[in-house]
Design goal:
about 70 residues, mainly beta, about 10% helix
């Protein structure tokens, strides 16, 4: 799957990551159909919130449920 990874202040890149599984009964796997950034993403991108390098960011998504735990 494609993911956006934080590489440092004002630096992010798109990488290929292994798709996560469904570990528990409350988990679900979605096929993302659309995504966007939000204010907290900008805080991290601009260095106002500490974030370790190589951290995958993003949480504003819509999609289709592919699998449930």
């Amino acid at each position: 799957m494609k993911a956006v990874m934080y590489e440092g202040e004002n630096r992010m890149r798109v990488v290929d990551e292994k798709a996560p599984g469904t570990a528990g009964v409350k988990d679900a796997t979605l096929r993302v159909t659309i995504s966007a950034i939000c204010g907290s993403d900008l805080h991290m991108y601009e260095g106002r919130i500490a974030l370790p390098k190589s951290h995958v960011v993003g949480h504003e998504i819509m999609g289709v449920i592919e699998r449930v735990g």
